[in-house]
Amino acid sequence: MRAMDVMTKEVLTVDVYTTVRAVAALLSERGISGVPVVDAANRVVGIVSEGDLLHRAEIGTERRGKRRRSWWLASLASDLAPDYVKSHGRSVADVMTRKVISVSETTELADIATLLETNGIKRVPVISNGTLVGIISRANLVRALAATESAAPTAAGGDEQIIRNRVQDELIRKRLLDELSRMEWANILAADVIVTNQTVHLWFCDDLPDEQRRAVHIAAENTAGVRSVEEHIVPAPPVPAF
Q1: What are the counts of helices (DSSP H) followed by strands (DSSP E) for the chain?
Q2: What domains are defined for the chain?
Q3: Residue 1: pLDDT band by 50, 70, 90 thresholds?
């Protein structure tokens, strides 16, 4: 499977002028741990995560340097300047991580998993022609794993058959998402649909009305090429307390 098969396409983003308080509220309200920072052309210029907001003066968690008395040691104090900016800056531009690791739509999930692990990150933007088209988090990979349990790929037919199956899965997913995009009642994200070996896996929050869940299920069953449909129920995101 590749990035395009499981990535979240509806990506929440911020720009460099977004305030630190606003991005903190966004992460808290949406129950996410980070968002890409984009420019006017939707190019990724950074990423801001919970880790970037960990040391803040407002909550007394900023890093504190020890007093330096030797003049030559004092020159090392300049190293503390970035920490001060990060803990006291008011905009995303002050706190974001500028060196962003990204992948393409065709990057294999195995490579993405290795990338997340070796770099100690939780998500990676998906870039196409220089612009942001999606994002993949550890949660997306876990869902992909869950989708393989009942539809393990077969070696019959060799590599050519595997490629044909992959193309068929991509086509099924596109057909279903296109159909759902025309339905006002279909409150489902692209990341909630994974297709493996012509089996459609659907993820629903436990607070979704049964009628709406059933309608999505039927739409999946009626999609050309689908062999079976499996549902996965997950807890709804917590409502933030104010």
Answers
A1: 9, 7
A2: 1-142 (3.10.580.10), 149-235 (no CATH)
A3: confident
Cα 234 vs. chain centroid, distance in angstroms? 17
Rounded to whole angstroms, the Cα distance separating 37 from 116 reads: 19
In total, the chain counts a number of residues equal to: 242
Task: Give how far Cα 58 sits from Cα of 84, 127, 151, Å.
Answer: 12, 34, 50
Question: Per residue in 136-163, is it b (16+ CB within 10 Å) or e — as a string?
Answer: bbbbbbebbeebeeebeeeeeeeeeeee
* Alpha-carbon span 135 to 140, nearest angstrom: 9
Evaluate if residue 152 carries a pLDDT over 70: no
Q: Tell me, what amino acid is at 170?
A: E
Distance (Å, whole) CA 61 – CA 72 = 28
Mean pLDDT of 92-110: 94
In percent, the amount of the chain with pLDDT more than 70 equals 86
Model-wide pTM > 0.85: no
pLDDT at 236 over 70: yes
Place of tokens 């995101």: 237
Query: What is the token pair recorded at 9?
Result: 């396409």
